[in-house]
Amino acid sequence: MKTTILLAGILLYTNVALAEESGKQLFNTLCLRCHTTNPGKGITKVAPPIFAVVKHVRSAYPQREDFVQQIVDWVEHPDKDVSLMQGAIKKFGLMPKLPYKPEEVKKVAEFLYDEKATPPTWYKKHYEEKHGKNKLQ
Ligand code: HEC
Known about the structure:
The chain is mainly α. It contains 7 helices and no strands. The chain has helices at about 1-20, 25-30, 50-60, 65-75, 85-90, 100-115, 120-130. The mean pLDDT is about 85. Bound molecules: heme C (HEC). Heme C binds near residues 33 and 46. This is Cytochrome c domain-containing protein.
């Protein structure tokens, strides 16, 4: 009996702990190993830095809801034909399909939308060279 109560307690605790995992923590666990937040000069070899991804998705989907949906759909099914970052695919290859839970990716996407990361100066330069001036605020 005691064991059952103890087990139920542990299960409840674990569920609460999981439910409370924030978008930021989920990002760190699920995406950070490929999408760096703090690149040095130049772009990492594995994938574009996350602010570059956010910038591209945000300019195509300025509304929070659309932005979140686009990221959730993308992670579920990366597809060259709907990609907003054709240059990144050429450079790094298509993002692999990852077995993540859509509700977790949704939290990550909301975090990415709300977090207003400022890109480093070298990236602004790189972006303007590629996409023209006045596009990156
Ligand atoms: C195994 C490495 C890897 C992981 C982990 C990863 N990505 Fe990516 N991602 C990539 C690569 C490589 C690209 C660039 C090529 C491309 O766009 O497919 C990319 C591109 C993207 C893009 C741009 C899509 C476009 O329009 O081309 C989005 C959005 C994105 N990732 C979101 C995420 C999110 C959110 C996570 C975590 C839930 C994540 N990625 C985890 C490798 C990864």
